[in-house]
Amino acid sequence: MTRSPSTLGIAILSGILNSLSSRNTLEPSPSSSSIIPAAQQEEDNFPARVPSRFIACVTRDASAKRVKNALSSHMSSVTVLQKQNLKGIQQADVIILACKPKNLKDGILREPGMQEALQGKLLISILAGTSVESVEENIYDFLDPSTIPNAKDRCRIVRVMPNTASLIRTSMTVIADSEPPLPPPQSALVTWILSRIGRVVHLPSYMMDAATALCGSGPGFFALILEAMVDGAVAMGLPRAEAQMMAAQTMKGTAEMVQNGQHPALLREQVCTPGGCTAGGLQVLEDGKVRASVATGVRTASVLASRLGRGEQGVNAPR
Known about the structure:
- The protein is an alpha/beta fold.
- The chain has helices at residues 7-26, 38-43, 61-70, 85-91, 101-105, 114-118, 132-137, 184-195, 208-216, 218-235, 240-259, 264-270, 277-287, 290-309, and strands spanning 2-3, 54-58, 78-82, 94-97, 122-125, 156-161, 171-176, 198-203.
- The protein has an 8-stranded mixed beta sheet with strand order 3-2-1-4-5-6-7-8, sandwiched between helices.
- Helix 9 packs across helix 14 (290-309) and helix 10 (218-235) crosses helix 11.
């Protein structure tokens, strides 16, 4: 498996390696009990082939050092190649494209020999706002059909969107439905890889920009809200370290209640006593249009993800 590691690429690779490492430590010895806990049974639902060797492709010395530092405990399974994307892809069966969308437009997949190196392989793209068709157009010359291999030999491209929580294996990853559908072994492998770093959901490809805004940008939005709550608590006298821990745990607990079936509106009502402090605080937030601002932020991020995927520059410039 090879990748061009951004921060998110490193997080994904770290999550996969940690998962494989955990599985190895949990593997029962011949003399141990044959009863395997349910959690381990789920972990052991491996596809026929799983990655065992990893190649990280980078361009700069600083990036190579960052990869080695982040994956220091797993370097026996990782090779770092600098300015050798073609070599990395030639040696790989599965490629995770984790660069910035602009790098695609700059020709990262147009290097001589790249089309041949990708033939018959699986490429998983996490490029924000970038469709499968856009990636294909940067591999193949559709103006010259004679250069395009038949469907069986073409590179199969899957569009996905994880988030930075991959680093601690709590990502929310969206996998776009493929057309035509991936062969079952490839589909199982994609799901397995991304399940190593958190939860996975499959959605139609036209929903991917919205999914990018919600799941990819979401940690940034939640972090801003959490930071604001901490600032308010500090202003009222709480120590910052304790306030940050308390706010994070409160956000985590609330999220888990929603995941267990509580509707956010009902949960809000449960803690909103008439005439109480929660009701007063919520009124201030509603007066400040927090709900509308957050919703508009998600919508804006969705539109910008699409524009970035088209290679546009300065998408956040004042309009």
